[in-house]
Structure formats: structure tokens, C-alpha cells
Amino acid sequence: MNYDALKHLHMTAAGLSILFFIVRAYWSVTGSGKLQLKFVKIAPHIIDTVLLVCGVALAAMLGAAAHQPWVIAKIAGLALYIVVGTIAIKRGKTAGTRAFAALVAIAIFFYIVGVAMAHNPMSWLA
After folding, report:
1. Consecutive 10-residue runs of the chain (126 residues): their mean pLDDT?
2. Are 98 and 111 in contact (CB under 8 A)?
3. pTM value?
4. CA dist 124 to 40, 102, 115, 121, Å?
5. Which of 3, 52, 82, 92 has the most neighbouring CB atoms within 10 Å?
6. What would the DSSP string read from start to end of the chain?
7. Is the Cβ–Cβ distance between 114 and 124 less than 8 Å?
């Protein structure tokens, strides 16, 4: 698969990931039983696996350029997004905590998008 096709698959998976995250976070905050549906439990893992595999493959295609500060910022942002996202979906003890964590996770996601677009750790401020 060429770089552009892989990049588009990565971006599509990222879009699906954040959309599905927002829906699941809403369900978590409202206490919906839909979070227990089999599809809802499995789909995020499939989407996020595609996202991660594409990201790793893109970094491999970049070679030495993958050690640029912007790539490292994306990886650090992803780790933080995962931690905060788990609080938003299941680890937050109250609806308010989960809602706040969801908003923080969405902000982190858009920071990562800005880093990817600007190729700069300053994200949208670059």
C-alpha cells in the first residue's frame, strides 16, 4: 500500500474513532445500556487497531523522519488520550467526571490532529 492510501486509511480510522468515542462517552455520561452491546464493545478495538497499525506503518515509511518531535508529540498525545478516554468511558466514578474527561479527551484528540497537520508539536499554534 502506498503512503497516500495508508494516510487516508489512517485519517478515516481517526475520524471513525473520535465519532464513536463521542457517542460512547455520551452513553457513558447518560448511563445508557447501549454501552453493553456486543458491537459497541468490539468495534472500537477494531477501528483503533486499524488506526494504530496504519500509524506505525506510516512512521516506518517515514524512516528517520519518524523521530521528528511532531511524531513523538503525536505518540505522547495518543497515550494521554487513551488514559483520559478510559476515564470518560468507564473509569470515571460520576457522570460529571466522565463528562469532563470526555471533553479533555476530545481536546487532546484535536491537539493530535493539529500536530499531524502542522508537523509541529505546537499543533494549532504553530
Report:
1. 94 97 97 96 95 91 80 92 96 97 98 94 92
2. no
3. 0.90
4. 32, 20, 7, 9
5. 92
6. --HHHHHHHHHHHHHHHHHHHHHHHHHHHHT-GGGGSHHHHHHHHHHHHHHHHHHHHHHHHHGGGGGSHHHHHHHHHHHHHHHHHHIIIII-SSHHHHHHHHHHHHHHHHHHHHHHHHTSTTGGG-
7. yes
* Residue in this structure with the C-alpha cell 505546537, named with its chain if needed: 122
Q: Among all chains, which residue has been given the C-alpha cell 499531524?
A: 116
Cell 488514559 belongs to 83
CA distance 30 to 16: 21
